[in-house]
Amino acid sequence: MSLPNPAELISQMATSLTAHLQQRAISEPRFIGIRTGGVWVAQALLEALGSDSPLGTLDVSFYRDDFSQNGLHPQVRPSALPFEIEGQHLVLIDDVLMSGRTIRAAMNELFDYGRPASVTLVCLLDLEAGELPISPDVVGATLSLDAHQRVKLSGPTPLELELQDLAL
Fold it and tell me: Is Transferase found in the keyword set (predicted)?
């Protein structure tokens, strides 16, 4: 299977996100990337948009519902939101949407900071393997993988996708 080029996806996503925000009359969204890959995608997306908006970062390690099964990520860092959440239009960015559990954890954390006016979900890849009813508003590409396959994003510069086979 050939994976898409992240730089090309980011360019397409910038165009789609601009249209999405204009359609909803959102002029000053707040951008938040989910560590780590979502932050890399968010940085590239802000650059593609020509935006100098501050970027918030979330580390959802303590908010995941599978924390007891998977343990704590070895490099937990605090979340950093350089703006208010209350009443703001947020653009939440992640690299790969798989089960939906990371997004659910991010939403839980965001609502601990306040009640946003709206949340637009942007993902580089949607693997359509959802365990939860979560889907992105803007997506770079949708892939169908075998159960033993995963996609890993490396970066931040350049952003590269790698197909991993867990059966090997």
Answer: yes
Domain total in the chain: 1
The pLDDT, as a whole number, for residue 129 is: 81
Place of tokens 């159960």: 147
Nearest alpha-carbon partner for 58 in 6, 131, 111:
111
- At position 125, the amino acid (one-letter code) is L
| CA 17 – CA 162 distance, rounded (Å) | 25
Q: In this predicted model, what pLDDT tens digit does every residue of 38-66 receive, in sequence order? A: 999 999 999 999 999 999 999 998 775 55
CATH number of the domain enclosing 66: 3.40.50.2020
Residue 1 lies in a domain: no
pTM higher than the cut 0.85: yes
Cα–Cα dist 44/104, whole Å:
23
